Amino acid sequence: MKQSKDDGSSGLRGDTQENENDISDAVGTNTMDAPTQSPKEPDASFSEQPTLKPTEASAAQGISVANVSIDIVQNSCIIGSLAGDECLEEPKIRQQLFVPRGGANPVNINFGHSVAFINDNILAAATDGSGAGAGVHIYFRDNLNLFTHFQSIFDGDEQRLFGYSIAASKSTNTLVVGAPSLARSDEEVDCVKEWCELCSWSEFDSTPCGERLDVIVQQSSNGNEEDMKQQIMTSGRCIEDVICNQVVSQGKVFVYEPKGNSWEQVGTISSDDPSFGSVVAIEGDIIAVGSPEEDKVRIYEKDESGWTFLVDTKTPPSQTSGARFGSSLSLSDGILVIGAPLDGIGGVAYVYARSFGDFVQQGPPLAPRDISPGDNFGEKVSVSGCTVAVSSSNAKTASTFGTGLIRIFNYDPLLDLYSADQILEPMEQVAGVFPECLVMDENNLLVGSSGGGSFSTGIVTHFVRRNNVWAQQAVMPHPLLEAGGSAVGGFGCGLSISDSTALVGAKGDEQGLPGSFYVADLCPEAEEELI
Asked: What are the Cα distances from residue 412, in Å, to 70, 74, 327, 441?
C-alpha cells in the first residue's frame, strides 16, 4: 500500500530561479527520547537495528520502484470499497512522541508540524524549521511495537526553515526535506570591495598599493595575499570600487537515503526563490517541489549523477500571477495534483499524469461551477489511486456548522478526466479552519483542524469510503483532553497514513515544550490491548 502525505505551504517571497547541485554529508546526532506519556514505557533500547531495505512494491501498484517513468494505465483504475473490512471501534491513540532532548531544551519549535511514513515501520517528524533545535527526527518500530527515536538531522542555517515540509518514498526509503528561506528585506545588500593595484598608498605616499602589498606579504608570518588585501581595504586604502548586490535568499530541498544503519544526505536542490521547498512530494525517483510565491512547481528525476535532472517546470495554465500555484502537492501512482487556491474565481486544482518522461495535464482544471471568490479551493490536495480530494476552507456549506468543505473527484476512464463525485462536510461543529489539512490513503481520509474542537485545541475528522461512498466515521479530539489533562492546541496538522496507522501532529502541545505527535490506529481490533 502506498504512503500518503500532507504537505505544508508557506507565505514566503522570492523572484528568479537558479538550480545548483550540492552533495554533502548530513549532520545528524542520536539523542534519547523524552519520557512518553503512554501508560506503558519501552523498558530498553531496541534490540535490533531498523531494516533499511526498500519496501517491495506490488505489481498492482502499476509502477516500477526502479523507474517511475513507466506510464500508468489509467483505465485500470478501480474505486475501492472496504469489502467487509469494517471498523468496529473508533480510532485509538497508541503512542505520543516528543522531540528528542539534547543539551538545551528547545522551546516553541512546533514539533509535529510535518510528519511522514518512510515505510510501515519507520517514520519521520519535523518542526516548522523555526527556533533553536529545529530539525527532522527519525523513529522506528521496535520489538515492543512502539516507535523509538533513532536519528536526528539538522541543517544549522538559521536563514532557512529546515523541515518545514517533508515527504518520503516507501519504495526507496528516500526522505525529502524542504527548507524554504526566511524572507529578507528588499534593501538587504551584500557589498564587495575591489582591490586597486595602481592606486597610491595614501594621500602622502604615492607608492602603488601593489608594491606596498608585496612588501607586507613578505614581512607577514601569514603570507596570504588575499587576506592582506582584505585587511588593507578594511582600513580604507587601495579600494578601486565597491560593488553591491541584493542578497538572494535561496530555498533548498535536501535528499536523504539509507546508508548502512542511518540516513545520509545524498543531494541538494536549490532555487533563488525563497518559497522553494514550502511543499515537497516524492514517489520513487521523482521529486516535485512547490514554489507558491513564484507560481511554479519543479519536477526532478534521479539519474546517474544524482537528484539533479530537472524534468519540467510547471506554471499555472491560466497564466495567472499570484495564483499560489504549488501551495499544495500530492503525488501517487504517477498522478501529480497541484493546488492553486488564488487561481480562477475561487481556486483551481490541476491534475498531471506521467507520460513518456514528462507530466502532461489530464483533463480540464478541477474548478467547480458553484465556487465563489475567496473559497480557497485547492488550498490542500491529496490523491490516492483514482481519487482526488481537494479542500476549500472558505466555501459556504449547506450545514449550520460553519464554512469549509472537501470535494471528491474520481477518474472517469471513458472521458479520461476527473469528475466531481461528492462533497464532504463535518457532521458536527468543528470550529477553527475546516479543512486546514488533509491526507487520503485508499479508503481513509483524515481532515485536521488544529484550532478546532473543545477549547480550540485541535480535532481530526476521519472519513471512510464504503461501496464507493464517503461518510464520516469518527472524530478524534485532542488526546490529552480525552485523558482529562490539559492541552495548548495545534492537534491535527501534519498528517500521514500508512495502511490503517495514522500520524497526527500536535505542534502546540505542552506549554513550555516544543510540541509532539501521535501514532493512532484508525481501525483497531476490538480485543486489542493498546500501548
From this structure: 21, 9, 26, 19
